[in-house]
Amino acid sequence: MFDKWTQYSYAEQKKQRHRLLKFIFVFLILYILFNCFNAFLFSSWVVENNTMQPGLSSGDRLIFTSFSPPWIRDKSDNNNLMFKRGSIVLVDMGRQKEKKIPLKILDGIVRFFTLQTVSIFSGEGQYYIKRVIGLPGDEISMSNYVFKVRTAGSSYSLTEYELSEKPYLPFIPQTSDLWNEQLPFSGSMDAILLGPGECFVISDDRSNTNDSRTWGSVKVSSITSRAVLKFWPVLKMELF
C-alpha cells in the first residue's frame, strides 16, 4: 500500500520527471560534444574491404582527423588543404546526394552509440578509404598501374611516389599479354587535367577500380578527413 502511494504521489512523480530530464540533458550534452569532436577533431573507422592492400586490410581500424571549414576547403590554393598527395583519406561520395535531416540525426545517434563503427548510410556505399594522387590543377596519367603527376605550373611529371611525403607500396596486378591498352582498366590511362576543387583518389590495390578511374575526379569537399593512425591490430600500429 505504501509503495502504491509513493508511486502516485506528487513528490515521487516530480522526482521521476527530474531524473528523466537529467538523463535527457546529460545525453544531449554528450551527443553534442561527440558530434563536435567528430566534426572538428577525430573519428575512428573500420576498413571494410581489401581495396587498400597491402598496407591496409579488412578489419583494420584507423583514426581520422576532420579538418578545415568549407570556406578554406573551397579555396584553389593547395597549401590550404589539410591533406597532401599520398595521404590516405575518407571520401564521402554520398555528399553528392542530399540526405533528409531526420536521417542525419538518426545516423548521428547510431554512430554515437556504436563508437563510429556503424552508420545507417553504410549500405549505400558512400564512404571510401582511398589515397590522394592528384590535387587541383595537376595533370594525371598512368602507365603499368603507376601514376605520373605533373603539378600545376611544372614542365615535367614525377611518379606518385616522388610526390608523396610517406612511402607506400601499392599492389600491381600481373596482367596477361592479351590484355592490351585498348581494353578498359589495362593499367594505362591518358592524361587528364584536374580542375579547381578537384582531386584524384585511388585504391592501393590497383586491380580494384572502385576509385577515380571509374568515378572521375572527386570534389575537395567530398574528402571529409585524413588518416593519422592505424591503431588495430595493435602489433601493426602505424602513424600516417
Characterise this structure:
22% of the residues are buried. This protein has 240 residues and is α+β, with helices and mostly antiparallel strands. The strands form two sheets. Strands 1, 2, 3, 4, 9, 10, 11 and 12 form an eight-stranded antiparallel beta sheet that branches. Strands 7-6-5-8 form a four-stranded antiparallel beta sheet, with no helix packed on it. The termini are far apart. The chain is built from five helices and twelve strands. Strand 5 and strand 6 form a beta hairpin. About 3% of the residues have low confidence.
Q: Descriptors for this entry?
A:
four-stranded antiparallel sheet; 25% strand; elongated
The number of strands is: 12
Mean pLDDT across the residues is: 79
* Topology pattern, helix = H, strand = E: HHEEHEHEEEEEEHEEE
Largest sheet: 8 strands, antiparallel
Beta content comes to: 25-35%
- Based on CA atoms alone, the radius of gyration comes out at 23 Å
* Helix count from the secondary structure assignment: 5
In helices, the fraction of residues equals 10-25%
State the shape. Answer: elongated
Instruction: Kindly name the structural category.
Output: alpha+beta
Secondary structure elements and pairings:
Layout: H1 2-8, H2 10-40, E1 42-46, E2 61-66, H3 70-73, E3 88-92, H4 101-113, E4 127-134, E5 139-143, E6 146-150, E7 158-159, E8 189-193, E9 198-202, H5 212-215, E10 218-219, E11 223-232, E12 238-239
Antiparallel strand pairs: 1-2, 2-11, 3-4, 3-11, 4-9, 5-6, 5-8, 6-7, 9-10, 11-12
